Amino acid sequence: MKSNKFHGKLFSDNLKNGNILPFSKLQVFDISHNNFTGPLPHGYFKNFVAMMNVKINGTEERNGVTDPVILVLMGYQQKLAGILVTSTVIDFSDNQFSGSIPPEIGNLNSLMSLQLKSNNLTGQIPSSICNLTSLESLHLSENKLQGTIPQCLGNFSTSLSVLALKGNQLRGPIPTTFVNGNKLKYLNLNGNKLQGPLPKSLRKCQRLEVLDIVTR
What we know:
Elements: E1 7-9, E2 28-30, E3 35-39, H1 42-46, E4 54-56, E5 59-61, E6 69-73, E7 76-80, E8 89-91, E9 96-99, E10 113-115, E11 120-121, E12 137-139, H2 152-155, E13 162-164, E14 171-172, E15 186-188, E16 193-194, E17 210-212
């Protein structure tokens, strides 16, 4: 559904009374580059069942085929080796969605690519995003997000290759929790209101190829 001329709001009336969305087995949801408006549909995030780890006999099972994906950010081409392309992608980018990022996003703990850039999203990055420990790409740039950057995103650098938060209204320090042996290659925090010195833990990002942290 990406790159069409779809417009209007996404309604979730069929979620009332506990009904499940008809695409409960959907593993890639991409409606980017359209003209959708209104708030992000929180009900959708509650029902992306295929993007959750399902516990079987006490162990977590994931469905999907492992395959490399090429992600292009502002001309920078990044290969995400081993991303589970059939179970892990949500892309609402380049629309006119408003409102906050739903806390239900934290239920999608097998999600590896979350793309919400270039909308009109407000509020803070929800703390529940710290549940997404398998995340490889997080792109929330060009919104109106406020508050601080969750420190847990530094911990995610063992799997996170792309962290793009540019062009928001984020304040406070850059995460100080980057770990040894991390995989971070692209870090863009440009155009926020961040404060404080560069964290010493950035030295641990030895694979870093793009670093942009110019503040307003």
